[in-house]
């Protein structure tokens, strides 16, 4: 990957500094790597709209809801109100695990139902301040939660930017650093060998020449596989391009890369034990295309 090449060059700054243009190209590449990693991180946030501030508010909202639910559950049991018990069956941990959209919906239902009997709940430790806090936290959480359309639009922008940054980094490698490193090959054979090995890893992970891909009539697909439940990375998911023998597995960073994909329209299937199969349809690959197709897997285990 690009970071492997940057690390190899960084370890021999004294050598590459002897060629000013090579040092300049290295600094360009290092800056691009930072932008690529930041954009990739932003792209993950765009999937869920989750930020640190919103995460804190979500936790506070779940805590406030759990307090009301706990007291109301006792009241519902004593009054044999089965419907109310079903409404407030949530614990704090279950509330935190809900998706943002579902939590907003559930919190509204709980607030409305419990607020209608708040006079009865005073004896169980729930007062007006609890409902005021709950309402304020819910309103704040709604404001912090971006609409699905906005998240999708932002994600498209970040995806396009990520692809552009990666292409720019490849051009620097192909057109500048690869050629200038040849100047050092004779006097620094060990360093040059390390660099070639790093570039070999880089090429395997998708840093192929776009013009060659166009000539061969192929493109490549890469992306990240994460879990819907907590947005964690997923290692070991299998990515199939249906209708072909092509498949790949996500690595320890949740990343996968498939090159030499013939042009055409495909359905991508992503599978892993304990997760539901994910099908991504109408993926169009054109010669020279560099597609970023992420997968978000939903647990196959029903939530309680």
Provide the CATH topology of the domain at 211-304: Immunoglobulin-like
SSE succession? HHHHHHHHHHHHEEEEEEEE
**Per DSSP, what share of the residues sits in E-state strands of 2 or more residues?**
15-25%
> What is the fourth-level CATH superfamily of the domain at 211-304?
Carboxypeptidase-like, regulatory domain
Query: Based on CA inertia axes, which overall geometry fits?
Result: elongated
Head-to-tail CA distance between termini: 41 Å
Backbone CA Rg? 26 Å
Instruction: Give the mean pLDDT.
Output: 83
List the total number of helices. Answer: 12
Helicity range of the residues? Answer: 55-70%
Structural class: alpha/beta
Major sheet attributes: 4 strands, mixed
**CATH architecture of the domain at 211-304, please?**
Sandwich
CATH class label of the domain at 211-304: Mainly Beta
Q: What's the β-strand tally?
A: 8
Outline the low-pLDDT stretches: 46-52, 202-208
Structure description:
This protein has 304 residues and is α/β, with parallel strands linked by helices. Strands 1, 4, 7 and 8 form a 4-stranded mixed sheet that branches. Strands 3-2-5-6 form a 4-stranded antiparallel sheet, with no helix packed on it. About 5% of the residues have low confidence. 23% of the residues are buried. It has 12 helices and 8 strands. Among the domains are: 93 residues; 94 residues, Sandwich (Immunoglobulin-like).
């Amino acid at each position: 990957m690009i970071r492997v090449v940057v690390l190899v060059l960084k370890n021999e700054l004294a050598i590459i500094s002897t060629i000013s243009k090579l040092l300049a190209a290295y600094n360009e590449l290092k800056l691009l790597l930072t932008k690529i990693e930041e954009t990739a991180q932003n792209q993950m946030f765009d999937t869920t709209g989750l930020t640190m501030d919103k995460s804190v508010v979500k936790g506070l909202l779940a805590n406030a809801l759990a307090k009301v639910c706990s007291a109301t559950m006792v009241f519902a049991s004593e009054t044999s109100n089965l419907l109310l018990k079903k409404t407030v069956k949530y614990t704090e941990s279950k509330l935190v695990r809900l998706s943002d959209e579902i939590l907003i919906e559930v919190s509204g239902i709980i607030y409305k139902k419990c607020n209608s009997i708040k006079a009865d709940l005073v004896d169980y430790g729930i007062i007006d301040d609890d409902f005021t806090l709950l309402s304020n936290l819910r309103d704040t959480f709604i404001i912090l939660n971006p609409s699905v359309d906005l998240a999708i639009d932002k994600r498209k922008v970040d995806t396009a930017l990520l692809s552009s940054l990666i292409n720019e980094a490849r051009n620097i490698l192909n057109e500048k650093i690869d050629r200038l490193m040849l100047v050092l090959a004779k006097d620094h054979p060990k360093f040059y060998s390390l660099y070639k090995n790093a570039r070999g890893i880089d090429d395997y992970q998708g840093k192929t020449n776009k013009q060659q891909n166009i000539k061969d009539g192929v493109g490549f697909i890469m992306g990240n596989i994460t879990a819907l439940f907590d947005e964690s990375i997923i290692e070991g998911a299998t990515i199939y391009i249906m209708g072909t023998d092509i498949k790949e597995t996500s690595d320890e960073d949740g990343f996968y890369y498939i090159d030499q994909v013939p042009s055409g329209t495909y359905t991508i299937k992503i599978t892993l034990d304990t997760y539901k199969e994910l099908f991504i349809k109408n993926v169009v690959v054109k010669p020279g295309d560099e597609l970023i197709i992420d997968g978000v897997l939903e647990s196959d285990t029903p939530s309680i």
